[in-house]
Protein backbone atom coordinates (compact mmCIF):
# COMPACT_ATOMS: atom_id res chain seq x y z
CA UNK A 1 0.00 0.00 0.00
CA UNK A 2 1.63 3.29 -1.05
CA UNK A 3 1.69 6.08 1.49
CA UNK A 4 -0.54 9.14 1.26
CA UNK A 5 2.33 11.30 0.14
CA UNK A 6 3.26 8.91 -2.66
CA UNK A 7 -0.32 8.80 -3.90
CA UNK A 8 -0.53 12.56 -3.91
CA UNK A 9 2.64 12.75 -5.95
CA UNK A 10 1.34 10.29 -8.50
CA UNK A 11 -1.95 12.13 -8.87
CA UNK A 12 -0.09 15.34 -9.53
CA UNK A 13 2.19 13.77 -12.12
CA UNK A 14 -0.72 12.21 -14.01
CA UNK A 15 -2.50 15.54 -13.90
CA UNK A 16 0.39 17.34 -15.54
CA UNK A 17 0.61 14.63 -18.20
CA UNK A 18 -3.08 15.12 -18.88
CA UNK A 19 -2.52 18.81 -19.33
CA UNK A 20 0.11 18.16 -21.97
CA UNK A 21 -1.96 15.64 -23.90
CA UNK A 22 -4.97 17.91 -23.79
CA UNK A 23 -2.99 20.84 -25.16
CA UNK A 24 -1.52 18.69 -27.91
CA UNK A 25 -5.00 17.46 -28.80
CA UNK A 26 -6.34 20.98 -29.16
CA UNK A 27 -3.38 22.08 -31.24
CA UNK A 28 -3.84 19.06 -33.52
CA UNK A 29 -7.55 19.80 -33.91
CA UNK A 30 -6.83 23.36 -35.01
CA UNK A 31 -4.06 22.27 -37.36
CA UNK A 32 -6.20 19.50 -38.79
CA UNK A 33 -8.77 21.98 -40.00
CA UNK A 34 -6.07 23.94 -41.79
CA UNK A 35 -4.46 20.83 -43.27
CA UNK A 36 -7.80 19.58 -44.54
CA UNK A 37 -8.51 22.93 -46.17
CA UNK A 38 -5.10 22.83 -47.85
CA UNK A 39 -5.71 19.30 -49.10
CA UNK A 40 -9.02 20.37 -50.56
CA UNK A 41 -7.55 23.47 -52.19
CA UNK A 42 -4.99 21.31 -53.97
CA UNK A 43 -7.57 19.04 -55.53
CA UNK A 44 -8.66 21.14 -58.58
CA UNK A 45 -5.09 21.28 -59.90
CA UNK A 46 -4.58 17.55 -59.48
CA UNK A 47 -7.85 16.58 -61.16
CA UNK A 48 -7.31 18.96 -64.10
CA UNK A 49 -3.75 17.81 -64.62
CA UNK A 50 -4.84 14.17 -64.48
CA UNK A 51 -7.56 14.84 -67.07
CA UNK A 52 -5.11 16.53 -69.44
CA UNK A 53 -2.58 13.75 -68.89
CA UNK A 54 -5.20 11.12 -69.68
CA UNK A 55 -6.21 12.69 -72.96
CA UNK A 56 -2.58 13.23 -74.01
CA UNK A 57 -1.22 9.87 -72.93
CA UNK A 58 -3.91 8.14 -74.97
CA UNK A 59 -2.59 9.87 -78.09
CA UNK A 60 1.12 9.51 -77.50
CA UNK A 61 1.34 5.78 -76.91
CA UNK A 62 3.83 3.25 -78.19
CA UNK A 63 7.50 3.75 -78.94
CA UNK A 64 7.44 7.51 -79.08
CA UNK A 65 6.33 7.74 -75.44
CA UNK A 66 8.80 9.46 -73.12
CA UNK A 67 10.76 7.34 -70.64
CA UNK A 68 8.81 8.63 -67.66
CA UNK A 69 5.64 7.17 -69.17
CA UNK A 70 6.96 4.09 -70.95
CA UNK A 71 9.50 3.00 -68.33
CA UNK A 72 13.03 1.71 -68.86
CA UNK A 73 11.86 -1.57 -70.30
CA UNK A 74 12.79 -3.50 -67.19
CA UNK A 75 11.24 -3.82 -63.75
CA UNK A 76 14.14 -5.28 -61.81
CA UNK A 77 15.08 -2.46 -59.44
CA UNK A 78 12.35 -0.95 -57.33
CA UNK A 79 12.45 2.18 -55.23
CA UNK A 80 10.01 2.62 -52.37
CA UNK A 81 9.39 6.26 -51.54
CA UNK A 82 8.02 6.17 -48.00
CA UNK A 83 6.39 9.35 -46.71
CA UNK A 84 6.46 9.43 -42.92
CA UNK A 85 5.83 12.20 -40.46
CA UNK A 86 8.58 14.16 -38.72
CA UNK A 87 7.03 14.15 -35.30
CA UNK A 88 5.65 11.45 -33.10
CA UNK A 89 2.67 11.50 -30.74
CA UNK A 90 0.35 10.45 -33.53
CA UNK A 91 -0.65 6.93 -32.55
CA UNK A 92 -0.04 4.08 -34.94
CA UNK A 93 0.23 6.21 -38.08
CA UNK A 94 3.95 5.77 -38.68
CA UNK A 95 4.11 2.14 -37.66
CA UNK A 96 1.24 1.37 -40.04
CA UNK A 97 3.10 3.08 -42.86
CA UNK A 98 6.31 1.25 -42.08
CA UNK A 99 4.40 -2.03 -41.90
CA UNK A 100 2.85 -1.43 -45.34
CA UNK A 101 6.27 -0.55 -46.78
CA UNK A 102 7.83 -3.67 -45.25
CA UNK A 103 5.15 -5.94 -46.67
CA UNK A 104 5.59 -4.41 -50.12
CA UNK A 105 9.37 -4.73 -49.89
CA UNK A 106 9.16 -8.40 -48.83
CA UNK A 107 6.74 -9.09 -51.66
CA UNK A 108 9.08 -7.55 -54.22
CA UNK A 109 12.07 -9.35 -52.78
CA UNK A 110 10.19 -12.65 -52.91
CA UNK A 111 9.59 -11.99 -56.60
CA UNK A 112 13.34 -11.65 -57.07
CA UNK A 113 13.50 -7.87 -57.42
CA UNK A 114 15.93 -5.57 -55.69
CA UNK A 115 14.45 -2.98 -53.39
CA UNK A 116 15.74 0.33 -52.15
CA UNK A 117 14.13 2.93 -49.91
CA UNK A 118 13.88 6.68 -50.26
CA UNK A 119 12.59 8.19 -47.05
CA UNK A 120 10.66 11.40 -46.64
CA UNK A 121 10.16 12.43 -43.03
CA UNK A 122 12.07 11.35 -39.97
CA UNK A 123 9.93 8.77 -38.28
CA UNK A 124 10.27 5.90 -40.71
CA UNK A 125 14.05 5.86 -40.74
CA UNK A 126 14.79 3.94 -37.54
CA UNK A 127 12.34 1.04 -37.93
CA UNK A 128 13.12 0.54 -41.61
CA UNK A 129 16.84 0.69 -40.97
CA UNK A 130 16.48 -2.01 -38.32
CA UNK A 131 14.72 -4.27 -40.80
CA UNK A 132 16.69 -3.49 -43.97
CA UNK A 133 20.02 -2.05 -42.82
CA UNK A 134 21.62 -2.00 -46.26
CA UNK A 135 18.71 -0.86 -48.38
CA UNK A 136 18.20 2.69 -47.18
CA UNK A 137 19.11 4.94 -50.08
CA UNK A 138 18.51 8.66 -50.08
CA UNK A 139 16.00 10.67 -48.17
CA UNK A 140 14.52 14.09 -47.84
CA UNK A 141 14.28 16.01 -44.61
CA UNK A 142 11.03 17.91 -44.30
CA UNK A 143 11.50 18.83 -40.65
CA UNK A 144 13.32 22.07 -41.48
CA UNK A 145 10.16 23.79 -42.71
CA UNK A 146 7.01 24.31 -40.71
CA UNK A 147 4.55 23.07 -43.30
CA UNK A 148 5.99 21.35 -46.36
CA UNK A 149 4.60 22.94 -49.49
CA UNK A 150 5.02 22.73 -53.20
CA UNK A 151 8.67 23.78 -53.09
CA UNK A 152 9.52 20.67 -51.07
CA UNK A 153 7.47 18.43 -53.34
CA UNK A 154 9.33 19.93 -56.28
CA UNK A 155 12.70 19.27 -54.68
CA UNK A 156 11.81 15.65 -53.93
CA UNK A 157 10.41 15.08 -57.43
CA UNK A 158 13.45 16.62 -59.10
CA UNK A 159 15.76 14.38 -57.09
CA UNK A 160 13.72 11.29 -57.92
CA UNK A 161 13.57 12.13 -61.61
CA UNK A 162 17.32 12.76 -61.63
CA UNK A 163 17.88 9.36 -60.02
CA UNK A 164 15.56 7.79 -62.60
CA UNK A 165 17.35 9.46 -65.50
CA UNK A 166 20.67 8.31 -64.09
CA UNK A 167 19.33 4.77 -64.15
CA UNK A 168 19.30 4.09 -60.42
CA UNK A 169 15.93 2.36 -60.48
CA UNK A 170 13.28 1.13 -62.89
CA UNK A 171 10.09 1.51 -60.91
CA UNK A 172 9.24 3.83 -58.03
CA UNK A 173 6.36 3.32 -55.64
CA UNK A 174 5.00 5.98 -53.34
CA UNK A 175 3.90 4.90 -49.86
CA UNK A 176 1.87 7.52 -48.02
CA UNK A 177 -1.10 7.77 -45.69
CA UNK A 178 -4.50 8.69 -47.13
CA UNK A 179 -6.58 10.77 -44.81
CA UNK A 180 -10.06 9.29 -44.48
CA UNK A 181 -11.13 10.71 -41.14
CA UNK A 182 -9.57 11.61 -37.81
CA UNK A 183 -9.96 7.94 -36.88
CA UNK A 184 -8.78 6.27 -40.07
CA UNK A 185 -5.67 6.94 -42.14
CA UNK A 186 -4.86 4.14 -44.53
CA UNK A 187 -1.40 3.55 -45.92
CA UNK A 188 -1.60 3.69 -49.71
CA UNK A 189 0.91 2.44 -52.26
CA UNK A 190 0.88 4.04 -55.71
CA UNK A 191 3.19 3.56 -58.63
CA UNK A 192 4.95 6.87 -59.15
CA UNK A 193 7.48 6.25 -61.91
CA UNK A 194 6.91 5.28 -64.67
CA UNK A 195 3.67 7.22 -64.61
CA UNK A 196 0.90 4.62 -64.85
CA UNK A 197 -1.02 4.90 -68.09
CA UNK A 198 -4.50 6.24 -67.36
CA UNK A 199 -7.19 3.65 -67.90
CA UNK A 200 -10.07 6.01 -68.49
CA UNK A 201 -9.03 7.32 -71.86
CA UNK A 202 -11.05 10.41 -72.58
CA UNK A 203 -12.23 10.65 -76.15
CA UNK A 204 -12.41 14.28 -77.18
CA UNK A 205 -15.01 14.96 -79.80
CA UNK A 206 -13.35 18.13 -80.98
CA UNK A 207 -10.01 18.45 -82.69
CA UNK A 208 -7.50 20.01 -80.31
CA UNK A 209 -4.57 22.01 -81.54
CA UNK A 210 -1.27 21.52 -79.76
CA UNK A 211 1.57 23.97 -79.40
CA UNK A 212 4.28 22.64 -79.38
CA UNK A 213 3.58 19.04 -80.41
CA UNK A 214 1.77 16.48 -78.26
CA UNK A 215 5.03 14.70 -77.45
CA UNK A 216 6.71 17.85 -76.23
CA UNK A 217 3.78 18.87 -74.09
CA UNK A 218 3.62 15.40 -72.59
CA UNK A 219 7.33 15.45 -71.89
CA UNK A 220 6.87 18.65 -69.93
CA UNK A 221 3.76 17.49 -68.18
CA UNK A 222 5.12 14.20 -66.86
CA UNK A 223 7.59 15.66 -64.34
CA UNK A 224 4.87 18.08 -63.33
CA UNK A 225 2.55 15.17 -62.74
CA UNK A 226 5.12 13.43 -60.52
CA UNK A 227 5.50 16.67 -58.55
CA UNK A 228 1.77 16.96 -58.09
CA UNK A 229 1.61 13.38 -56.85
CA UNK A 230 4.28 14.09 -54.26
CA UNK A 231 2.63 17.33 -53.26
CA UNK A 232 -0.63 15.47 -52.78
CA UNK A 233 1.15 12.89 -50.64
CA UNK A 234 2.66 15.65 -48.47
CA UNK A 235 -0.75 17.25 -48.00
CA UNK A 236 -2.31 13.91 -47.11
CA UNK A 237 0.51 13.24 -44.69
CA UNK A 238 -0.07 16.55 -42.98
CA UNK A 239 -3.80 15.95 -42.57
CA UNK A 240 -3.24 12.35 -41.47
CA UNK A 241 -0.63 13.33 -38.92
CA UNK A 242 -2.89 15.90 -37.31
CA UNK A 243 -5.91 13.59 -37.43
CA UNK A 244 -4.05 10.67 -35.90
CA UNK A 245 -2.47 12.94 -33.33
CA UNK A 246 -5.83 14.35 -32.33
CA UNK A 247 -7.33 10.89 -31.83
CA UNK A 248 -4.32 9.55 -29.97
CA UNK A 249 -4.17 12.54 -27.66
CA UNK A 250 -7.91 12.39 -27.02
CA UNK A 251 -7.50 8.80 -25.88
CA UNK A 252 -4.51 9.69 -23.74
CA UNK A 253 -6.41 12.51 -22.06
CA UNK A 254 -9.31 10.19 -21.30
CA UNK A 255 -7.01 7.50 -19.91
CA UNK A 256 -5.28 10.03 -17.70
CA UNK A 257 -8.69 11.15 -16.39
CA UNK A 258 -9.59 7.59 -15.50
CA UNK A 259 -6.29 7.05 -13.78
CA UNK A 260 -6.68 10.24 -11.77
CA UNK A 261 -10.13 9.12 -10.64
CA UNK A 262 -8.84 5.72 -9.56
CA UNK A 263 -5.92 7.21 -7.68
CA UNK A 264 -8.12 9.79 -5.98
CA UNK A 265 -10.46 7.08 -4.69
CA UNK A 266 -7.48 5.14 -3.40
CA UNK A 267 -6.09 8.28 -1.79
CA UNK A 268 -9.39 9.10 -0.07
CA UNK A 269 -9.77 5.54 1.21
CA UNK A 270 -6.33 5.43 2.75
CA UNK A 271 -6.83 8.85 4.31
CA UNK A 272 -10.14 7.67 5.80
CA UNK A 273 -8.48 4.49 7.07
CA UNK A 274 -5.73 6.52 8.75
CA UNK A 275 -8.27 8.77 10.48
CA UNK A 276 -10.31 5.80 11.68
CA UNK A 277 -7.23 4.08 13.11
CA UNK A 278 -6.22 7.26 14.87
CA UNK A 279 -9.70 7.64 16.40
CA UNK A 280 -9.76 4.04 17.59
CA UNK A 281 -6.39 4.58 19.23
CA UNK A 282 -7.60 7.72 21.05
CA UNK A 283 -10.85 6.08 22.22
CA UNK A 284 -9.04 2.96 23.36
CA UNK A 285 -6.57 5.15 25.27
CA UNK A 286 -9.39 7.13 26.91
CA UNK A 287 -11.19 3.97 27.97
CA UNK A 288 -8.07 2.52 29.54
CA UNK A 289 -7.82 5.45 31.96
CA UNK B 1 -20.25 36.84 -74.36
CA UNK B 2 -17.67 36.44 -71.63
CA UNK B 3 -14.86 33.91 -71.51
CA UNK B 4 -14.67 31.67 -68.48
CA UNK B 5 -11.13 31.82 -67.16
CA UNK B 6 -9.55 29.69 -64.43
CA UNK B 7 -6.08 30.01 -62.98
CA UNK B 8 -5.09 27.07 -60.81
CA UNK B 9 -1.97 26.38 -58.77
CA UNK B 10 -1.23 23.25 -56.71
CA UNK B 11 -1.99 25.24 -53.58
CA UNK B 12 -5.30 26.75 -54.59
CA UNK B 13 -7.72 27.93 -57.22
CA UNK B 14 -6.46 31.47 -57.79
CA UNK B 15 -9.08 32.73 -60.24
CA UNK B 16 -12.36 31.48 -61.55
CA UNK B 17 -14.25 34.25 -63.29
CA UNK B 18 -15.79 35.45 -66.51
CA UNK B 19 -13.62 37.90 -68.46
CA UNK B 20 -13.43 39.44 -71.91
CA UNK B 21 -10.00 38.24 -73.02
CA UNK B 22 -6.86 36.67 -71.62
CA UNK B 23 -3.42 36.93 -73.16
CA UNK B 24 -1.26 33.93 -72.30
CA UNK B 25 2.53 33.78 -72.80
CA UNK B 26 2.80 30.53 -74.75
CA UNK B 27 6.11 28.79 -75.36
CA UNK B 28 5.90 29.64 -79.05
CA UNK B 29 4.53 33.14 -78.59
CA UNK B 30 1.82 35.00 -76.80
CA UNK B 31 -1.73 34.24 -77.69
CA UNK B 32 -4.98 35.90 -76.79
CA UNK B 33 -8.04 33.85 -75.97
CA UNK B 34 -11.52 35.22 -76.57
CA UNK B 35 -14.83 33.52 -76.10
CA UNK B 36 -15.43 30.71 -78.57
CA UNK B 37 -11.75 29.92 -79.17
CA UNK B 38 -11.02 26.59 -80.85
CA UNK B 39 -9.81 23.78 -78.54
CA UNK B 40 -6.16 24.39 -77.95
CA UNK B 41 -3.38 23.18 -75.68
CA UNK B 42 -0.05 24.82 -75.05
CA UNK B 43 2.78 24.93 -72.59
CA UNK B 44 3.59 28.41 -71.36
CA UNK B 45 6.86 30.08 -70.57
CA UNK B 46 7.47 32.09 -67.42
CA UNK B 47 5.84 35.43 -67.88
CA UNK B 48 2.78 37.55 -67.40
CA UNK B 49 -0.79 36.52 -67.97
CA UNK B 50 -2.85 39.56 -68.93
CA UNK B 51 -6.50 39.53 -68.04
CA UNK B 52 -8.85 41.98 -69.75
CA UNK B 53 -12.03 42.09 -67.71
CA UNK B 54 -13.79 44.35 -70.26
CA UNK B 55 -13.14 45.23 -73.86
CA UNK B 56 -10.57 48.02 -73.93
CA UNK B 57 -10.03 48.03 -70.16
CA UNK B 58 -6.54 48.07 -68.70
CA UNK B 59 -5.24 44.53 -68.24
CA UNK B 60 -4.67 42.92 -64.88
CA UNK B 61 -1.26 41.26 -64.87
CA UNK B 62 -0.39 38.05 -63.04
CA UNK B 63 3.10 36.59 -63.17
CA UNK B 64 3.17 32.82 -63.61
CA UNK B 65 5.95 30.26 -63.66
CA UNK B 66 5.94 26.70 -64.93
CA UNK B 67 2.63 26.39 -66.59
CA UNK B 68 0.28 24.97 -69.07
CA UNK B 69 -2.85 26.32 -70.74
CA UNK B 70 -5.87 24.51 -72.08
CA UNK B 71 -8.77 25.92 -74.03
CA UNK B 72 -11.89 23.82 -74.37
CA UNK B 73 -15.57 24.48 -74.86
CA UNK B 74 -15.90 25.41 -71.20
CA UNK B 75 -13.29 28.14 -71.33
CA UNK B 76 -9.61 28.68 -70.62
CA UNK B 77 -7.75 26.93 -67.84
CA UNK B 78 -4.21 27.90 -66.91
CA UNK B 79 -2.33 25.49 -64.67
CA UNK B 80 0.70 27.15 -63.12
CA UNK B 81 3.12 25.93 -60.51
CA UNK B 82 3.87 29.35 -59.10
CA UNK B 83 1.86 32.54 -59.20
CA UNK B 84 2.95 35.99 -58.07
CA UNK B 85 0.73 38.96 -57.61
In short:
The complex is a heterodimer of chains A (289) and B (85). Chain A is 61% helix and 14% strand. Chain A has 289 residues and is α/β, with parallel strands linked by helices.
Termini Cα gap of chain B: 27 Å
Total number of β-strand segments of chain B? 8
In terms of DSSP E residues, the strand content of chain A is 5-15%
- Poorly predicted tracts of residues of chain A: none
Helix fraction of chain A, binned, reads 55-70%
Rg measurement of chain B, Å: 11 Å
Low-pLDDT segments of chain B? none
Mean of pLDDT of chain A:
88
Give the C-alpha Rg of chain A.
28 Å
Question: What class would the helix/strand composition of chain A place it in?
Answer: alpha/beta
How can the largest sheet of chain B be summarized?
A: 8 strands, mixed
Word description of this protein:
- The complex is a heterodimer of chains A (about 290) and B (about 80).
- Chain A contains seven helices and six strands, in the order H-H-H-E-H-E-H-E-H-E-E-E-H.
- Chain A has about 290 residues and is an alpha/beta fold.
- Chain A has a five-stranded mixed β-sheet, sandwiched between helices.
- In chain A, strand 4 and strand 5 (about 185-195) form a beta hairpin.
- In chain A, helix 1 packs antiparallel against helix 7 (about 215-289).
- Chain A is elongated and about 115 Å long.
- Helices cover about 0% and strands about 70% of the residues of chain B.
- Chain B contains no helices and eight strands.
- In chain B, strand 3 (about 20-25) and strand 4 (about 30-35) form a beta hairpin.
- The mean pLDDT of chain B is about 90.
- At the A-B interface, helix 2, helix 6, strand 6 and helix 7 of A face strand 5, strand 7 and strand 8 of B.
Amino acid sequence: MPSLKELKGRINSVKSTQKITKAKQMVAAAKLRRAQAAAEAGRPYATRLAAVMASLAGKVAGDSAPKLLGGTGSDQRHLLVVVNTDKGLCGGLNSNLVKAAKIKARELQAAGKTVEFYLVGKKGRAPLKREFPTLIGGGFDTSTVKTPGFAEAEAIANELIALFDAGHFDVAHLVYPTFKSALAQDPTINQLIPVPAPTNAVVLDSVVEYEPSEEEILEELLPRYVRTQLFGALLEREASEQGASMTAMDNATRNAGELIQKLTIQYNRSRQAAITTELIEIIAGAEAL
Amino acid sequence: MPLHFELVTPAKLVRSEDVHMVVVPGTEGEFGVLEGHAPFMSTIRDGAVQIFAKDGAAPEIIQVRGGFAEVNEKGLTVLAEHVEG
